[in-house]
Structures are given as C-alpha cells and as structure tokens.
Amino acid sequence: MSADSRASGRIVHLISVIACTTVLAVLLPLELEARPRVDFTMVIRDDIPLPGEVLASPPESVVDRMFETILSDSWRIDYMSRDERGRRIYRERFWTANDPTPTTPENELYDEYMLRLTYALANFCPHDSLDWDERGDIALRFGVPPSRSLFMGDVAPDIDPPAEFWVYPRIGMSVRFIDPILKGWYQVGTDRKYLTDGRGPGSNQVTGPIEHGWGKLEAEGYRVLQDVPTAYEYQQPAEPLVLFHEVVTAAGPGGATDVAINWQVLMNQLSFSEAEDGGLRASIVKRIRILSADNSVLNSQVRQSTVHCECREALASGLLITDEWRVDMRPGKYTIAISVEDSLSGRRGIGRSSVHVQDYTVPHLLMSDIQLAIKVGSGDKFLRMGRMVVPKPVHAFLPSDELVIYFELYGLAEDKNGGSRFTITTEIEGREHRGHENWFQRLIGIPKRAVAVSSKVVAVGDAPNTQHWYSVLLSNLKTDVYDLLIIIKDANSKQEVSRTASFTVMVVDE
Question: Rounded to whole angstroms, what are the CA distances from 114 to 54, 57, 119, 233, 352?
C-alpha cells in the first residue's frame, strides 16, 4: 500500500471519527454537558493498524494467551491441561471446526481474531510490551467497538479514575473500563459503584435497579461478559444462497459405507447469462470437505457444473435444482461441510452436518437411513441399488404432496422361496401435540401419544438385501413438525431394526 493511499485512509477514518463524536455529543443529556470535569472525546491514534495489517508471526506465548481469552471456562481447562504441542494442535482443530466457510481455503474466523490480536497489541499494551490490559481481552472477545469514548477523570471533590466507555450497538451493551492506579492499566469496572443513574458516565451513583440510559447498557454489558465467551458474526461478501442439504448413509461397495450429500437450491436465486446454443445458462461451483472426529481434514474436493434454462419466464417458477455428492467412507464420526456457489453473482450457500457413518457389514438385520424422496423410478442419476431415487433435502411438504419414503434392508433371513418377509410399522407423530402432555405423564416418563399416522403392513423382498419404498398421504395433517418412525421386523429371524426422520407440513391459507 502506498503512503498516499494510507494517508487518505487515515483522513477518511478521522472524518468518520469526528462524525461519530458529533452524534455522541448531540445524544448526551444537557446536564452532563454542563459538568466541566467530564471530558468526552473519541480516542484517536495514528498507529491503529489498517484492515489486513496482521502481525506476521506473533510469538507463541502471545497466541497462547489470546486463545485462552476467547475460550469458554470448560474449554479453557481442557486447553490449559495440554503441553505446548497439544495446545498447538488444539488451536488448529478449533479454527478448522469453527471455520464459517469450511469448504474454502480461507478461514475468516482465524483471520478476524488475528486482526483483533494485532489491534490489541497496538493499542492496549500501556507499558510498550506484548502484555495487554483488560481492554485487549474485551477487544479480542467482542471485536473493536464502533463507539469508544474517554473520561479523563478527576481528583476533586471525589476521586474518579480515568475511564473508557465502549458501546456495542449490535449486542445492545456497553463496557466501562477504569484506571484505578492511574498507570494506564485499565480493568473492567464491574463493581456496582461504577454503574450510573442513566445520565452518563461520571454522574451520581445508584443503589437500585437501573432501567434506562447508560446504566442499562452497562448492566447488560456485565451480564454478557459473564455469559458469552466471544462474539463474531461472519458477513458473506454477497447475499447468501439458500441451500437445503442432508446426509444419508447406506451400504456401499466392498464393505464401505455409501454417503450421499444431497442438496437443493432455488433456480431463481442463480444468475443466468445467454448461452451460445440458445437459452440461459448458470455456472455453479460445489465444494465438500470432510473432517474427522478430531477436526482433521480428511477429504476436500471441488466440482463445477452448469445449469440450463429455456427462458427467463421459467426462472420465476420457483423450481428447485437437485443434486448429490456421493462418497465412500469408513464407519465413524465425521463433520461434512458443503457449499454451493453461483459463479456469476458470488452468492454462496453453506451447510455443515455432524454424521455418524454406520457400519453396514455387521452380520445382523440392518437398515439404511430413511430417504424422503420426490420419486422412485428408472433413470441414470441418483441410483440406489440400480434404481433412481430422487432425494428431497427440503423436508417440507404441503398437505397435497405425497411423502415418498425409501430405505434399504440388509441381513434379512432367507425363507424357503429364496426371498424375505418382514413387517413395516410406520408412525408419524406431531411435535406440537406431543408437547401437550400433562405433568403426571412427564413425571412417570409415559409420553402422550399423538400419532397422526399409524400403519402396519407385511412386505416381501429379496434376501439378504432388499430395497423398499412407499408413499403416505398428508392431506389430514396440520401445520407442524412431524417425527417419522419406521420399525422393521424380520418374519423369519424375528430381529427388529428401526430408523427415524423428521419433516414439516405447511398448510398455506388461501
């Protein structure tokens, strides 16, 4: 960055600070302005790092202390019990697990906290060392406040130490810092005597509840400091793309587990351009990243595809684009992240799921995850046991829709005809009705039964493995979230297995 551009940036920053100071002065009560011993100014420093100016390689001890500052109490105990190498691994896995864009090389959370660290080192180390005071702790936890003001303090008639007041409008809180020993080392003024009566910092102390003005913001600040370890809200560079996704597992080839990451996006949220061969075309970039139980990156892939549309009128139809990503995985616990990005607009949908990949090689009756489907038929996509099963990651239905349920069974006992025979019990229960159980039922652990759909049928299939699907009508269901329970009992081996899923029914008023 050139010196001219840095200087112009400083000027813009100074103008914005002056504007903020003017607004703050207008909002201050008249009685506070009339008190000459209270001096409100915005803290202006020329050495505040500009965005992107991150300390290249902070010492390990500094990073270690920063990390301790932003952890919750339980995580901090776990972190501090490790040796130096263990702490380094812990930090790496923490940043990976909390990356807001887990499928991209960038880790915005890590970058944000390194910026906060650089700011704290530049502004809140009063003794010109790498040791910051409690202002640095709060800046690390909640970021640099939009409004930061200074009270110069006074020694007559009462001793009032210098103080800073930080306001976080988005969180609805303010934090007061005091310098009790007049050495430039500030601490959070959490003592009740530093709360004000609502007329502003430096005004009369109060002993009763504070319900308005500065005091209310400070009281909320002290509550947040006690209850919230850290705050950061990632802002995507473009409007987010609404992404519906699910992860469904089934038996795969060679003893592996077949993991299907199914997803849907609205066609009218994509940006289309004229295609050379006629019609319209959009380009999307799909990414997945698979993390192990300890947040190590196991797999990361990128694919690009195009979406065709005949005319612009079709874009207003609200159609959903449905696709899948299939991966063979070993049994275990994983985190699977997916993103779908519109290449033209930069809009991106992000999804993350914690998945328990089941072992389907165990020699007894097993059942795949339940797949809620749009249809089951013939085709060359979305193949399950050679049959096309079009997924519906949007688990939301209208009463006029048909709920298609698909699953696979493994380890069925073979009957004398070489096939299998089993019973299917289906129960669909609304959560709203289930929540209306009385106190006695909750006390003795007997839930109130509010089953909206219940059926039991006998089915036949291949042995030892087979696929099965059927549909359920939803016309009699009200708006609610429903839990689906399917129980399978092998008529020959008498073994049972069950699976659950959930979906929403939405009744649209005409």
Answer: 6, 10, 9, 15, 24
- Closest by CA position to 259, among listed 131, 368, 120, 400: 368
Measured in Å, how far apart are the chain's first and last C-alpha atoms? 59
DSSP calls for 379-435? -SSSEETTEEEEE--S-EE-TTSEEEEEEEEESPPP-TTSSEEEEEEEEEEEHHHHT
Q: How many CB atoms lie within 10 A of CB 42?
A: 17
Query: Is the CB of residue 261 less than 8 Å from the CB of residue 327?
Result: yes
Residue 251: φ, ψ to 5° = -70, 135
Q: How far apart are CA 451 and CA 437, in angstroms?
A: 13
- Judged by average pLDDT, the poorest of 87-91, 187-191, 373-377, 484-488 is 187-191
Element (H, E) at 109: helix 108-123
Q: Which candidate, 286, 298, 296, places its Cα nearest to that of 342? A: 286
> What pTM was computed for the model?
0.75
Q: What is the per-residue pLDDT across 292-346, written as a single tens digit (0 to 9) for each?
A: 998 889 999 999 999 988 877 777 777 899 999 999 999 999 999 999 999 999 9
Instruction: Give the C-alpha separation, 410 to 361, whole Å.
Output: 9
Residue 196 dihedral angles phi and psi, to the nearest 5°: -115, 175
Note whether 486 and 454 are within 8 A (CB).
no
| Percentage helix, strand, coil for the chain under 3-state DSSP, each rounded to 5 | 25, 35, 40
CB 361 within 8 A of CB 320: no
Chain centroid offset of residue 273 CA: 32
**Rounded to whole angstroms, how far apart are CA atoms 264 and 87?**
39
Q: How far apart are CA 482 and CA 360, in angstroms?
A: 27
As beta bridge partners, residue 265 has 243, 321
Q: Is the dihedral of CA 133, 138, 144, 147 positive or negative?
A: negative
Angle between helices 84-97 and 73-80 (to 10 degrees): 140
Tell me what pLDDT residue 154 has: 66
Give, in order, the Cα–Cα distances in Å from 191 to each of 148, 176, 222, 226, 322.
20, 10, 10, 13, 57
Which backbone phi and psi does 60 adopt, to 5 degrees?
A: -60, -40
**In contact, 388 and 359? CB cutoff 8 Å:** no
H helix or E strand, kind and range, residue 297: strand 297-309
Q: Single out the residue of 57, 64, 111 nearest to residue 87, CA to CA.
A: 64
CA distances from residue 413 to 418, 424, 464, 466 in whole angstroms, order as listed: 9, 16, 6, 11
Pairing between β-strand 332-342 and β-strand 348-357 as defined by DSSP bridges? antiparallel
Question: How many of the other CB atoms lie within 10 Å of CB of 72?
Answer: 11
Q: Cα(81)–Cα(91) distance, rounded to whole angstroms?
A: 13
